[in-house]
Design a protein that fits this description.
By secondary structure, the chain is mainly α. Helices cover about 65% and strands about 5% of the residues. The chain contains 15 helices and four strands. The strands form two sheets. Strands 1-2 form a two-stranded antiparallel sheet. It has a two-stranded antiparallel sheet with strand order 3-4. Helix 6 packs across helix 7 and helix 7 crosses helix 11 (about 245-270).
């Protein structure tokens, strides 16, 4: 497991769960998360205006608030169900409720500093809080740097557009405060990444790992569940007035993008044993959006070649830095990486 904290009685090695149980649980968690978005009547879309004449789509404040509440509830339920399932199935050896809870948290990628009543350290926590903060910092800044390297091309385009911090078209109030504190910002950059990573990484990868599912399958196949969980956007687009063909096209593109991101997020979770790197990468990807080198080249015709070159360099830099920035020296090792 991640070396953020060292607990006695570490979790046993797989296989401890049957593949059928793990796959069934993963499917149930996926269905529960998607269904939660429509659980509340307020979260369901309607192709009609509200009292103020605004169409009730996925960006309507009423819909966003309702879905934030139900998605948060579904995530809490999923984490609790996963933890209880791991405990009941004996993945976590019985050592008392506090130690069991901390061990379950570790398995779900939520390593916490350990009170010294559970260790021989003379300090209040093991590891000491400064050391703990340093390790957590690596779990944040390493994936931040790695993910930003992939977006070198879009960052160069932002430089050409003069929208980077301290450039003429950048506004801290508009581009930071309003963007991240608005309802859509809270959904896209806080609640969405947090809940999706806790469900599709912590709660799905953990049972599958202890069912001895191969690492390659954990990385490349489980994003199908993550992608499927986004297919309901086709229905949302259709209700919002898109044609059926366009709705299916948008859903296909989104399924492909979420699948590729799922590979990356799964890799980060397995390499680190922590959900933090995936959350960081998720937020960065949501902020940056899909790269658009063609449209950028049309805006900056004299820089078209450099734009494509920057995108290519970003991909190469990402590939070169992927293993070093997720190594044991950076992340502290992981039970999940075999």
């Amino acid at each position: 497991m991640s070396l953020i904290c060292n607990l006695p009685n570490p979790p046993l090695h797989p296989p401890l769960l049957s593949p059928g149980f793990a796959i069934g649980a993963s499917t149930l968690f996926t269905f529960t998360y998607v269904a939660s978005l429509y659980l509340s009547p307020a979260g369901r879309l309607a192709n009609k205006p509200d009292l103020d004449g605004r169409i009730i789509d996925r960006d309507h404040p009423i819909v966003i608030r309702a879905r934030i509440k139900t998605a948060s509830f579904a995530t809490a339920f999923t984490l609790l169900a996963t933890g209880i399932g791991l405990w009941v199935k004996g993945v976590v050896p019985r050592s008392g409720w506090l130690l069991d809870t901390l061990n379950v948290a570790r398995l779900l990628g939520l390593p916490l500093p350990v009170p010294t009543v559970l260790s021989s350290s003379t300090l209040p926590f093991d590891p000491p809080l400064l050391q703990y903060g340093s390790i957590v910092g690596k779990h944040i800044f390493a994936p931040l740097l790695l993910t930003l390297s992939l977006f070198l091309g879009p960052l160069y385009v932002s430089y050409l557009d003069r929208t980077l911090p301290f450039q003429s078209r950048f506004s801290f109030q508009h581009d930071v405060v309003s963007k991240f504190t608005s309802l859509t910002g809270v959904r896209n950059y806080t609640v969405g990444p947090l809940t999706e990573e806790l469900v599709f990484r912590s709660s799905i990868l953990t049972p599958l790992f202890f069912a001895s599912i191969p690492t390659s399958s954990l990385i490349f196949l489980t994003p199908l569940l993550f992608g499927i969980a986004h297919l309901h956007h086709a229905y949302n687009n259709y209700l919002s007035g898109y044609s059926l063909s366009r709705s299916l096209l948008v859903a296909t593109l989104q399924f492909s993008y979420t699948g590729v991101f799922g590979w990356y997020a799964n890799f980060l979770f397995l390499r680190s044993g922590s959900v933090l790197p995936g959350i960081v990468a998720h937020v960065v990807c949501n902020v940056m959006g899909l790269p658009e080198p063609v449209a950028a080249g049309e805006r900056h015709t004299k820089k078209r070649g450099w734009i494509w070159f920057a995108h290519a360099v970003g991909v190469v830099a990402f590939a070169k830095a992927l293993m070093p920035l997720t190594s044991e020296r950076v992340f502290g090792g992981s039970l999940y990486w075999r």
